[in-house]
Amino acid sequence: MNEKKEMELIRAGKEAEQAAKNGTEQSGDIESLKIKYSGTEEKIYTVTTTVQVDDDTEEAFTYFFRKPKPASYDRYVKTISNSVTKASKSFVFDNIIEEQRFELRNTVEEYPAITISLADKLLRMLGLADTTSVKKL
């Protein structure tokens, strides 16, 4: 096992251990997180995405993200030409609140493409638009 993967596993284990020590669920309670972050001056956004598992089943996921900072966006732009998946994953994990990091990691293992959808929503917070028009003067 390479050193980088080993460090990631150790960090994930420490996060799970810390959540257990705090007596909280790893996923965190959505309502208590809303209350915790609503009183702060930090810009936190609720992002809900729905994954269509099959024709009859949909699964919704709700996460809280900080508004991405320019440095996070710059890293995303630098790495997107190499791998959209890796760039999206890094961008999403850069900006999720700490309490939901472990839950998101588990979701990404099952639905790896979810990071692309989440990254798209985070980019919209920074001004990415669906439509932009140009008109000749």
Topology:
Blueprint: H1 3-21, H2 30-38, E1 44-54, E2 57-66, H3 70-80, H4 84-95, H5 101-110, H6 114-125
What labels would you give this structure?
single chain, 137 residues, rbstp2171, 2 strands
Notes on the structure:
Helices cover 53% and strands 15% of the residues. The protein has a two-stranded antiparallel sheet with strand order 1-2. The chain has a single domain (26-125), classed as 2-Layer Sandwich (rbstp2171), CATH 3.30.2220.10. By secondary structure, the protein is an alpha+beta fold. The longest helix is centred in the N-terminal third of the chain and has 19 residues, at 3-21. The chain has helices at 3-21, 30-38, 70-80, 84-95, 101-110, 114-125; strands at 44-54, 57-66.
Short description:
The chain has 137 residues and is of the alpha+beta class.
Integer tally of domains: 1
Radius of gyration: 17 Å
What is the number of beta strands?
2
| Corresponding CATH superfamily | rbstp2171
Low-pLDDT residue intervals, each spanning 5 or more residues:
20-28
Return the CATH class: Alpha Beta
Do you know the CATH architecture? 2-Layer Sandwich
